[in-house]
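quick one, 119 residues, struct below
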Amino acid sequence: MKTIFVVDDSDTNLAMAEEALEDTFRVMTMPSAAGMFKLLEKVIPNIIFLDIEMPEVNGFEALEKLKSNHAWKNIPVFFLTGTTDASIEAKGKELGALGIVTKPFTRSSMNDLIDMYLA
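---
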């Protein structure tokens, strides 16, 4: 079974993502980038959904760290965000994100991206 990481500081968003994906994937949720990096030492996911606005380490900083690590740099990453600011999407793509999922997200919006990149 393919593994999906969902990193978001909102328990509501984590629960929504888990509910949307758990029938098809092994979903691992965590409330911080620090938790994600700790888990990455043991599990390499097939895709990461990463919130941009988080305390301590934001999504942009986390993505830079992911892409600078040889073991993690090829993991597909999609940002989760509540904003539709085009400059955020451009910055994410510049850093290596494949795209953005706008919150509140739907089951189909997440599954469509997963299907496209894990086909």
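Residues 1-42+57-82+98-112 form a domain with the Rossmann fold fold (CATH 3.40.50.2300).
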